[in-house]
Amino acid sequence: MSSRHLRQRRLSRATAALSGRKRGAQPKVVALGGGMGLSASLTALRRITGDLTAVVTVADDGGSSGRLREELGVLPPGDLRKALAALCGDDEWGQTWAQVIQHRFESKGDLHEHAVGNLLIVALWEQLGDHVQALDLVGKLLGAHGRVLPMSAVPLELQALVRGHDQDRPEDIVTVRGQATVALTPGEVQSVHVVPVDPPAVPEAVAAVLDADWVVLGPGSWFSSVIPHLLVPELLDALVTTKARKVLSLNLAPQPGETEGFSPQRHLEVLGRHAPKLAMDVVLADEAAVPDRESLADAAERLGAAVELAPVASPDGVPIHDPELLAAAYDRIFRMHGRIGPWR
């Protein structure tokens, strides 16, 4: 049997298991990240819990978000919008609204490439003067299966120390500024930091982490979407002290630019360097994306975590997570690795 057919069979079993699972009390889950990686986690997690909070990075400075941020001085709304879209249900209402807020205008004027959801979110921020209240209202309109919060109340600038950014000087380390630039930088990212250096966390985000049963970090752009959460001191303190169990969800492949050539275990090593006091409980990886299982297990052990390998990639071979397979993997982890809350 081909690997593709095997994955399709696993997908069918995962779908059947999730649809037939008994619903009792549900785990409180907080997912941290940004962009398409966080969207993948949220699309999966909303299938297994109704108590879900997304904590989203606010360092984006590209595209529509970057233009609104520069012109109006607001938080970049793009990753928040994507998280809200991912939390929309699979019914007609949810899918219609997901498409509406993701819609981008095409014109020869100032609206070109602006996303409808970005404009809606910023409009409500200006009307209500409250980031959290506005996002809650958008979520209510969409019928979102969860809550979306920014990780910080101020827009952040991501900066990276990059070795070999200039090909003529491969040993030089330079500072690269801006999330959009860091994500595609040539050279090898050594570390990242944010400006301002000690940004304030959104209190509701900190409270959600402290009250969670499970926290999920990743997948996503490692330096520009995942690690930035560890650079907000109050949020990192909450991640270190929470009684919640923590899952680190790895990417299916290195990202061109910022993690070019990275092994799965190297992702863990750079995360550990940025947050030495942060322990994890489980590292989730696609079984086909781990060529050296022993090295990954060693790196996970240094974070205090066990490795769970599962088929979570799309069966068609595209390097994206399949929602049903990822949901089944999370559900199994939540059930098999202990619990804080009484949901089972």
What's a quick, concise take on this entry?
This protein is an alpha/beta fold and 344 residues long.
Structure keywords:
single chain; 344 residues; alpha/beta; seven-stranded parallel beta sheet; three-stranded antiparallel beta sheet; 14 helices; 10 strands; 43% helix; 16% strand; disordered C terminus
Helix content: 40-55%
Structural class: alpha/beta
Overall geometry? globular
What value does the average pLDDT take?
89
Q: Major β-sheet, in short? A: 7 strands, parallel
Q: What's the total number of strands?
A: 10
Regions with pLDDT < 50 over 5+ consecutive residues? 14-23, 340-344
Q: What proportion of the residues form beta strands (DSSP E)?
A: 15-25%
Instruction: Summarize the helix and strand pattern as letters.
Output: HEHEHHHHHEEEHEHEHHEHEHEH
Q: How many helical elements?
A: 14
Please give the order of strands in the largest beta sheet. 3-2-1-7-8-9-10
Radius of gyration: 19 Å
Report the end-to-end length measured between terminal Cα atoms: 36 Å
Give the topology.
Elements: H1 3-20, E1 28-33, H2 35-45, E2 51-56, H3 63-72, H4 78-86, H5 92-102, H6 116-128, H7 131-142, E3 147-150, E4 157-163, E5 173-177, H8 179-183, E6 188-195, H9 203-211, E7 214-217, H10 222-226, H11 233-241, E8 245-249, H12 264-274, E9 282-286, H13 293-302, E10 306-310, H14 323-336
Parallel strand pairs: 1-2, 1-7, 2-3, 7-8, 8-9, 9-10
Antiparallel strand pairs: 4-5, 4-6
Helix pairs in contact: 1-14, 2-4, 2-14, 4-5, 6-7, 9-11, 12-13
